[in-house]
Design brief:
- With 379 residues, the protein is α/β, with parallel strands linked by helices.
- The protein has two domains: 171 residues, Rossmann fold (3-Layer(aba) Sandwich); 191 residues, Dehydroquinate synthase-like - alpha domain (Dehydroquinate synthase-like, alpha domain), CATH 1.20.1090.
- 49% of the residues lie in helices and 12% in strands.
- The strands form two sheets. It has a six-stranded parallel β-sheet, with helices on both faces. Strands 6-7 form a two-stranded antiparallel ribbon.
- The longest helix has 23 residues.
- The radius of gyration is 20 Å and the shape is globular.
- The chain starts with 9 loop residues before the first strand and ends with a helix.
- 50% of the residues are buried.
């Protein structure tokens, strides 16, 4: 048994921990740049609460409320241009995974004093990240608060991809499930499915195999199967919200030490072309991917089915039945046609798939990308 596992982020987890956030943040300095999305944090009062708490601690705060749901390199660059001369002591990301990913791009830009595109597109290596990041996630989905990757979109060339560096790990993740109570059912569903996708893909992935990753994945699959339907039924369900937040955090651990598979690679071009959410794209692709991939990792997929519904699985039919029952419990019935795509778009999408396909058990199958896209047109 040989493996490595790395997790440098300090976790502060629990209902109501947001109230303590300012006391942790000011330990990193008095000049604090707060990064949020455009509307939700302000509307929910989270932005004003945190700024007021920081000012009580004597901190000087600045706000960049400009990250999109699909974060753009031009937004990252705009923030860096605005605050590079001010040079904050610490950047605080308050929001979902998109905001946290955007903030990772910002700390890279503040460290290098350069635009982020060459690093995103692999034209320059990341050699250092000097500005610390604190992440306060407000969705249970991406796990970005506990991993070292950032996913951004460069609109100028139509590419959505990622970069990684150990300096992008948040120094602290303040993970408060109470912040997710205000989420709409749509966002709860989309981000919750992302937890499931991370769990399945990192469990199946050929990269970074370790007992810890396998345990995390199976635990998260069980949590999502049980508690995501409950969170959708009652958004105020404290237990369901807490369990989903915990599962999301676990998958951040996995993403820091393993990799996703084909569904994530294939969703990125869909998101860029249609400006649709990451989670909805995964839901559209996932059944087609499972149909194509089951035979290459049957034993693991059968364990996934057992974690999902508590029943033993020993064949593809039983596995797919468990998955479809789960999807029905979420009320999901989507296909690529719902995104105003046609089969004529498959070639365009396939040409824009980036990242390694070799980590997927079916990644070397000839035409696998086109096969998955094609299967995703059927409900």
């Amino acid at each position: 048994m040989h493996f490595s596992y790395f997790m440098p982020t300090k976790i502060i987890f629990g209902w109501g921990k947001f109230e303590q956030a300012s006391s942790h943040i000011v330990k990193f300095g008095q000049k604090i740049l707060l990064v949020t999305g455009k509307y939700a944090m302000k509307k929910q009062g989270f932005t004003d609460r945190l700024i007021a708490d920081l000012q009580k601690q004597g901190a000087e705060t600045a706000l960049f409320a400009g990250m999109s749901a699909n974060p753009l390199t031009k937004e990252v660059n705009a923030c860096v241009d605005q605050f590079a001369d001010w040079q904050p002591d610490v950047v605080v990301a308050l929001g979902g995974g998109s905001v946290i990913d955007g903030a990772k791009g910002i700390i890279l830009g503040l460290s290098t004093r350069e635009k982020v595109e060459p690093y995103l597109l692999g034209q320059k290596p990341i050699t250092h990240v000097d500005v610390p990041l604190i992440a306060i996630p407000t969705t249970a989905g991406t796990g970005s608060e506990t991993n070292w990757a950032a996913i951004l979109t460069d609109e100028s060339c139509g590419v959505k991809t990622s970069f990684r560096h150990e300096g992008l790990f948040p120094q602290i993740a303040i993970v408060d499930p109470q912040l997710t109570v205000s989420l709409t059912s749509a966002i709860t569903l989309e981000t919750g499915f992302d937890v499931f996708a991370h769990a399945v893909e990192t469990y199946i992935s050929k990269s970074g195999l370790s007992p810890q990753i396998e345990m995390n994945s199976l635990a998260a699959i069980q949590l999502v199967g049980e508690y995501l339907p409950q969170a959708l039924l009652d958004g105020n369900n404290q237990i369901a919200r807490t369990k989903m937040m915990y599962g999301s955090m676990l998958m951040g651990f996995n993403l820091a030490n393993s990799s996703t598979c084909l569904p994530h690679r294939l969703q990125y071009p869909i998101g860029v072309k249609t400006n649709t959410s990451h989670g909805s794209g995964l839901m559209v692709l996932f059944e087609s991917w499972l149909e194509q991939t089951y035979e290459f990792s049957q034993e693991k997929f059968d364990r996934i089915a057992s974690a999902l519904d508590g029943k033993p699985s020993s064949c593809k039919e039983e596995f797919m039945s468990a998955y479809r029952n789960f999807i029905r419990s979420l009320g999901v019935n989507l296909c690529l046609t719902d995104f105003s795509l046609t089969k004529q778009d498959i070639g365009y999408l396939a040409e824009r798939v980036t990242g390694s396909l070799a980590n997927d058990p079916a990644g070397q199958v000839p035409g696998i990308v086109e096969k998955i896209y094609n299967g995703a047109f059927t409900k």
